[in-house]
Amino acid sequence: MLSIRAHAKINLSLDIIGKRPDGYHDLSSVMQSIRLHDEVTLRSQKEITVRCDLRFLPCDNRNIAWKAARLFMDELQTDDGIGIQIKKHIPVGGGLGGGSADAAAVLMGLNRMYGFPVTFDRLLQLGLACGADVPFCMTGGTCLAEGLGERLMPLPSMPHCHILLLRPRFSLSTKKMFGLVDVKKIKHHPDTRGLINALNNRDAEGVTVRMFNCLEAFAPRLEIREYKQLLLDEGAKAALMTGSGSVVYGIFSSFEKAASAKERFSAMGLRPCLTAPVPSIF
After folding, report:
1. CA pair distance 250, 148, nearest whole angstrom
2. Which of 11, 18, 89, 229 is deepest in the core (most CB within 10 A)?
3. pLDDT for 193-246, tens place per residue?
């Protein structure tokens, strides 16, 4: 048996470079692992099964963790199975990469259980076959992800801060969100190079002033903007929608301010989560 933490991610920036002939979009995104995580437990058995504490999630071959296990076993050309137990803490449909993190944990965990027969580069290829964010979730820390998410460049760790997540009572489908994107209508793009320079210089303010997500302009819900303003009003240095949403997060330099904001949001009936960056995950 092996238990693994499957860490969520946030996007410090998300730029849409263009649309590919296959219908997908070329992206450039600075991504960051955070402490919030699912718990994935692997047990050897005769077939691949998935069990999850959220009953509405599919546990058959529609589950990305199941797909990751199938790809790994096919790579080894074995009929072995694995029991996958997932305890969810990462909100579903929030842009935090929860499913991708679970798939990454399965691939990394199985490779460990079998004595590391698959190279990390090959594991990344298997991860990309599961989903665009899986390679980053296997790498973790702070990275520039380009293309579909498969080209990863490790970056210096994000300066110490506290991250407060706010989850609206709705989710946004990644597929539907990107379906709304018209590349020609994107008027503003993140200063990705400036953001990377700020990370290199450990410049916390330089990071926060450059945080930007092109997808926000296409988000159909007013709550995204409202939640960002709530976070800024409570003292966040910056606030942003992560990924394709719907979760919005704020960056706080002070734990006291972040904790106070969390209490206030809880009293308002919202669902805040206080977390922090992690420099590595495996």
Report:
1. 26
2. 11
3. 999 999 999 999 999 999 999 999 888 777 889 999 999 999 999 999 999 889
Q: Is the peptide bond before 13 cis (omega within 30 degrees of 0)?
A: no
Q: Which of 38, 133, 228, 262 is catalytic?
A: 133
Pairing, β 272-275 against β 162-166: antiparallel
Tokens for 51? 């069990």
Per-residue pLDDT tens over the stretch 239-277:
999 998 899 999 999 999 999 999 999 999 899 999 999
Q: Is there a catalytic annotation at residue 257?
A: no
Q: Is 79 an annotated catalytic residue?
A: no
Q: Is 176 exposed, middle or buried (0-12, 13-18, 19+ CB in 10 A)?
A: exposed
Residues 139 and 166 in one domain: no
What CATH number does the domain containing 77 carry?
A: 3.30.230.10
Question: pTM for the full model?
Answer: 0.93
Which of 154, 182, 210 is the C-terminal boundary of a domain? Answer: 154
Helix or strand holding residue 62 (H, E): none
- For residue 29, what are the CA distances in angstroms to 45, 177, 209? 38, 16, 16
9, 228, 237, 262: the catalytic one is 9
Measure the CA dihedral 181/15/126/119, to 10°: 170
The number of beta carbons lying within 10 Å of the beta carbon of residue 169 is 9
Question: What does residue 91 show for φ and ψ, rounded to 5 degrees?
Answer: -55, 140
* 116 and 170 in a common domain: no
